Amino acid sequence: MTEKIRGNSVLPARREQITLETADGLSLVGELALPPDREPVATMICLHPLPTHGGMMDSHLFRKASYRLPALAGIAVLRFNTRGTSSVQGTSGGAFDNAVGERFDVAAAVEYAEFADLPHLWLVGWSFGTDLALMYGLEPAVEGAVLLSPPLRFSTPEHLAAWADSGKPVTALVPEHDDYLQPPEARERFAAIPQAEVIAVDGAKHLWVGDSERALDEITRKLAPGVPVPLPDTWDGPMERADSSAYRDRTVAAFKDVPR
């Protein structure tokens, strides 16, 4: 029976709880979701928003990516909690380190994907995760980066210059009403990366509430260009429903009044 895909719809996938081991001795909680009946065409390594403000591997956009993209687009979705971050999936070792020690977390995720022989590795960062991608994502195996709501808070002009020199593709999805970096300024700052594509998303805000589908379509467009977008909004097959009640007090929006 064909059903509408909703925010808590979980499409079929081969899902596995994983542990990432960092070079400085920490164990990080993660999950790998693979297409249910074929090999993946590309791999999305998720770098989540600021953990001190509710960001985690289970932040809504990355949950939806893991729920949908393996089945709809053939994309493998690897998501994990950076050091000290907790979610329903569990708590990673260590403590939040203001984008310093997190360099080892990014490296551990890329290394895991390499050893698992996952194809076409892309970093997909959201907010704080975009800074981690820009600062630490230029691993040889990484083919490019998609940046959702990049604040350019921790990353520096030197990091942008390194991406420019690499020639690797960068796509920044910048909400029209972003709280930190809006499209006009984003175009100016990302001009430092000649190959960067800045996409202004009309009507969207930093948290992507109500605009998840647009973000997932753009991710698919970059990682799996052979897959038609927009992605389907219905599914004819088995489908589960996730219980999202556990995240009500863990959303990024719940921390909107906390100083950053």
Q: Can you describe what's shown?
A:
The chain has 260 residues and is an alpha/beta fold. It is 26% helix and 26% strand. The chain is built from 6 helices and 14 strands. It has helices at 60-73, 102-115, 128-136, 157-166, 183-190, 212-223, and strands at 2-4, 9-10, 14-21, 27-34, 42-47, 75-80, 86-87, 90-91, 121-126, 142-148, 170-175, 196-201, 234-236, 240-241. Strands 3-4-6-5-9-10-11-12 form an 8-stranded mixed β-sheet, with helices on both faces. Helix 3 (128-136) links the parallel strand 9 and strand 10 (142-148). The longest helix has 14 residues, at 60-73. The radius of gyration is 17 Å and the shape is globular. The mean pLDDT is 95.
Write the layout of secondary structure elements.
Blueprint lengths: L1 E3 L4 E2 L3 E8 L5 E8 L7 E6 L12 H14 L1 E6 L5 E2 L2 E2 L10 H14 L5 E6 L1 H9 L5 E7 L8 H10 L3 E6 L7 H8 L5 E6 L10 H12 L10 E3 L3 E2 L19
Helix pairs in contact: 1-6, 2-3
